Amino acid sequence: MELIDIGVNLTHDSFDADRDDVIERAAAAGVMRMIVTGTSVTASAQAAELAASRPGLYATAGVHPHHASELDAHTVGALRELAAQPKVVAIGECGLDFFRNFSPPEAQERAFIAQLELAAECGLPVFLHQRDAHERFTAILAEHRGRLAGGVAHCFTGGPAELDAYLELDLYIGITGWLCDERRGAALREAVPRVPLDRLLLETDAPYLLPRDLEEKPRNRRNEPAFLPHVLARVADALGVAADVVAQAATENTERLFRLHDAERSGN
């Protein structure tokens, strides 16, 4: 089974010493393609550079809500330039995070709207983040959804009600190892069986969210894209569907949303 990890923070400094080995281990596990997440202008530029250097890697370009206070006209211009690169396949990670509030909510909303407008301008889908901000996030997104080329609720952790709201907005749903967390994953475990196969995407969010039920955990507690097959197995169990069927659906969904075949041809 060939898998695509739609959310890997591969430019994170925890990968600096062995990034090539991480990519090789992923490939050995069947994770042949990955989308490297951009969370600031600097991180997005690094993600785009890494993606351009290797086949099978792609990138997003955006400003995470934690960094929303940094977004200004210059930042939007820099993201626009990155979005023009052929292997940048989405705008984001963008959205709202009222759990941490590292940037004030008002700044987060302004940055979110600016990036939704940029995505509509560029014709790219959005890579979305939401935590403890469901009502405002949904309301803002609904105002712009008609102009967007699709989007994914990255690292979805909510329950059935939030899932239904996102499906109503015609979003894809990204599932991570949060599903494997016996402490915090109950709502997600209730929601996953309701995710339509044609809306499902798979991701690790590495180096974060190491699945807690891995039999052999790495000593450094770092998540890797090589663990995506473990997430796949847990999703397949929750859906009551064979893992190869889930893998094929998730791969086709990812190719469709992010237009990966077009990106690969343009990037060569």
Secondary-structure arrangement, i.e. CATH architecture = Alpha-Beta Barrel
Measured between the Cα atoms of the first and last residue, the distance is: 25 Å
Main sheet record: 8 strands, parallel
Based on CA inertia axes, which overall geometry fits?
A: globular
Count of individual helical segments: 10
Beta-strand fraction estimate: 15-25%
Task: Please explain how this structure is put together.
With 268 residues, the protein is an alpha/beta fold. The chain has one domain (3-267): TIM Barrel. Helix content is 42%, strand content 16%. It has helices at 19-28, 41-52, 73-83, 105-122, 134-144, 160-168, 186-191, 228-239, 243-258, 260-267; strands spanning 3-8, 31-36, 57-61, 88-97, 126-131, 151-153, 172-175, 200-202. It has an eight-stranded parallel β-sheet with strand order 1-2-3-4-5-6-7-8. Helix 5 (134-144) links the parallel strand 5 (126-131) and strand 6. Helix 3 packs parallel to helix 4 (105-122) and helix 4 packs parallel to helix 5. The mean pLDDT is 96.
Summarize the structure.
This protein is an alpha/beta fold and 268 residues long. The chain is built from ten helices and eight strands.
Give the SSE layout.
Elements lengths: L2 E6 L10 H10 L2 E6 L4 H12 L4 E5 L11 H11 L4 E10 L7 H18 L3 E6 L2 H11 L6 E3 L6 H9 L3 E4 L10 H6 L8 E3 L25 H12 L3 H16 L1 H8 L1
Helix pairs in contact: 2-3, 3-4, 4-5, 8-9
